[in-house]
Backbone:
């Protein structure tokens, strides 16, 4: 009997896409959770964990918040009805007060809205975690790397000392 080929795991809850570079490039302040307006095939592709938010950013357009630069590839198992633009702007669902707060922070303080991750909640709805971020200078990035290296070395020393 022939073994069935392995399928990619389908994500029902948990992280679908992560922007790990954002925490290196930006100082993340407050975070906000926003709903995401998606078409059917986009949700299926997202559940397969194929999205990329490395180049994505959020901004205001006509009084609404939108996610730009998020790449969700076409769902391969779909028909011709499953064709969509992979990088189309996606509408974010936020309360009006949150939209005004975020828009004010971006215009006044020069902050950036960076998507940190896309995940599915317990109800199976796609949510994007937005971080209100300020850019880091090169010396800040070097300091973070040195701090992370010291923490790793300290953990290694403690582990080796504890084993003796």
Residues:
């Amino acid at each position: 009997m022939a073994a069935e080929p392995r399928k990619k795991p389908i994500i029902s809850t948990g992280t679908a896409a992560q922007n790990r570079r954002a925490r290196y490039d930006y100082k993340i302040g407050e975070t906000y959770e926003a709903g995401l307006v998606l078409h059917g095939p986009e949700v299926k592709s997202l559940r397969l964990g194929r999205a990329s938010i490395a180049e994505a950013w959020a901004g205001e357009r006509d009084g609404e918040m939108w996610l730009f630069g998020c790449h969700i590839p076409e769902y391969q198992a779909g028909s011709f009805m499953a064709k969509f633009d992979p990088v189309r702007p996606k509408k974010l669902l936020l309360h009006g007060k949150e939209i005004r707060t975020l828009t004010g922070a971006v215009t006044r303080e020069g902050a950036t809205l960076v998507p940190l991750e896309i995940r599915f909640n317990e109800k199976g709805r796609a949510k994007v975690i937005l971080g209100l971020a300020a850019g880091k200078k090169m010396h800040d990035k070097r300091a973070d790397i040195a701090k992370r290296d010291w923490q790793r070395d300290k953990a290694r020393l403690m582990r080796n000392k504890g084993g003796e």
Notes: The radius of gyration is 20 Å. The chain is about 30% helix and 30% strand.
